[in-house]
Task: structure prediction
Amino acid sequence: MIDHAHDLASVQAATERLLSAVDALDDAAVTQSSRLPGWTRGHVLAHLARNADALVNVLQGRPMYVSGEARDADIAQGAPRPLGEQLADVRESAERFRAACAAPADWSRTVELRNGVTDRAARVPFRRWIEVELHHVDLGIGYELEDLPAEFVEREIDFLARRFAGHRDVPATDLTADDGRSWSTGGGAGGGPVAVGGAAADLLGWLAGRRDGYGLEVKGGALPALPPL
Result:
């Protein structure tokens, strides 16, 4: 059962953590490289702001982005701005998203995201939570996968395991965290089952493309190469 109100509260808490951390930076730090190839921290912050607005579009029945090219252009245009402008944009766009979620709505309805992907409206706050938490890590300013809330880590592993389930390029793969929690994914490619185990943060990092799988224990074959998200 998806509790969109709970997830929205989690989004707000995650956003405040991110804003507080970014507020300690300076203009020069915003121009430095993030952990995402080709993106500065300014690119990450601009993306977070535009993603909030894009999800408002989704909730209100409009296309998420006008086009992929327009999305990329908006991020590139916003990336060089000084810290104060970046903070204001992330904060104000987050408030627009909160207000859109607070409006009366049928949360069981189906909405369309990018590239024809559909989901229930009730999952949109969780998708925003993913953006805020993972991109906070991507900023490379001291917030690591190990710092993510335990509930988020478990749910994001489950979300990504479902996303890769049956994928034609991923063999059957069984995931086990050190605390015994387990998930299954893949199954569309030959081979396997491959057993992958380790710390939950490392499993999440591998599934989300933030870590290369170093530190994970793999049995039954090589660590599967996951397609990009």
About this structure: The first strand starts at residue 110 and ends at 112.
